Predict the structure.
Amino acid sequence: MSIQPIRLFGDPVLTTPASPVEVFDKELRKLVKDLTDTMRDAPGAGLAAPQIGVSLRVFVWDVDDELGHLINPSLSLSEEMQDGQEGCLSFPDVYYDTPRALRVVARGMNMHGEPVTIEGSEYLARAIQHETDHLDGILFIDRMPGESRKSAMKEIRESEWFGSAIAHGREPVIKVSPHSTRGLGI
Ligand code: ZN
């Protein structure tokens, strides 16, 4: 088990588009394991590789007791939308309503290089969209309506952790405390 420090908002790796995985080797399987261990330790409902400082198109999730991972995803989204609270392990204790597509079909590969298709709705669909955004350097604050984004940014600037990512690079590791809406960041 190898739990990695989670990068916080302010770390440039979080706003950098990640590269596609080209080699499906032991290193990649270790990355999936590290992501899974780090997500479960946080605890969180999802985690993308850039959140542990690895700029590759890989993410994991743990939603409704189902663990999964996806590599090089491409998404088809439903037109029907959902609203609901969303958090992110890279923004400790920040939760805001964030609109997302209600359903998603995600195509990609598993860690053995085999093609897989994941169909999800509601919270799984939300997590998959949130994690895929991470791979494009897009953060959940970018998906919020203007007014929410303003309040979120104010709360973030006033938070204890803000600036620590810039000042100390990888430090500190902050655990997300329980909160409503599953209490889990993604
Ligand atoms: Zn996130």
Notes: Residues 26-41 form the longest helix (16 residues). The radius of gyration is 15 Å. The mean pLDDT is 92.
